[in-house]
Design a protein that fits this description.
Length: about 400
Amino acid sequence: MHAAMIHAGGAAKLQAAGGVRSLSFDASSPLQLQSGESLAPLTVAFETYGALNHERTNAVLVCHALGGDQFVASPNPVTGRPAWWPRIVGPGRPIDTNRFFVICANVLGGSMGSTGPGTIAQDGQPYGLRLPPITISDTVRAQSMLVEALGIQTLFLVVGPGMGGMQALNWASAYPKRVFACATVAAAPKQSAQNIAFAELGRQAIMADPDWRNGAYLTHGVRPVRGSAVARTAAQIAGLSASEVRARFDNARTKERFGFTTGDNEAAGMRQNSAGYIDRFDANSYLYLSRAMDGFDLGADFGGQLTNAFKGADTRHGVFAFSGDWRYPVEESREIARALIAAGAEASFVEIKSQGGHDAYLGDEPAFEAALTGFIDAAAAARGLALQGGAG
């Protein structure tokens, strides 16, 4: 990322600290929230890969899932965590950084540099629960401010899994003239009752932790570690396939000794694996972002008709789903595809046979990678972009 690319004038300032790059917007550029409140100043942390071509037509925005961050194709310099989507984003990958200029922003309300509940407010204290409620559309508007500040008028592609897929759909609906192609991966047009219930259990676990301190734990120098571990474990379980859940817990069921942590205690093992997540992910961010997902219902903004969210738009859509995903079942992706076709949009739907559960998009899924590559290559040809590496 080069500072020379910033085109926001005096309203935005590029910052870098500890390997985290961010763009800060001052009070003259407040973010108008769906709640009617505004947020200023605003900071959006982001990472970029590849180079923008001369025509500025090869930009790709990757939107991350609930537990993700902006480091989609490189290690997180703060936590050391590896890139979260290296099979998809990188040189020679489906989203080829030799061909495309890739942007990935930490979501509004996140905990890796963007304005969130852990951000220090103007009174010198963390926002905590004083941060206004946020929605998926608020996150998309913040990303739009970032993209504009980078001097990019249109995006070749917006893509994301899970919560990132919700953002991608919102982008295509809210800014149809600015999004050439949209790829939705293992996502849904609205949050299901099952997912809302899982998220509420996680939120209740965090808030029941004595160290949560009514959301003011940072000012007390503590963190709700136990509650966060339970929330993380619930999310991990939801990411597995049904068969994997049974396989993981069957052995523990016969040997469980409650109160002890044994090698056969699958839940204890998952909690231990959550330690890195808890270190990098603010508990209040989980509350805010999971609530934003719970409130996502794209069709509700269009008279309850999802089709109306895409009418008259020229954006090309690819909808990708995994057969073993019970968090965002295939039928929910089919609903997106049906609405797009009814709206007259150019859309393709691909169901990948997989036992990887919701998290299959993170793993070795050659059929998914091939299908995504095909969609991107076809869109690139339609856009007039080079099919080989190197910025045009």
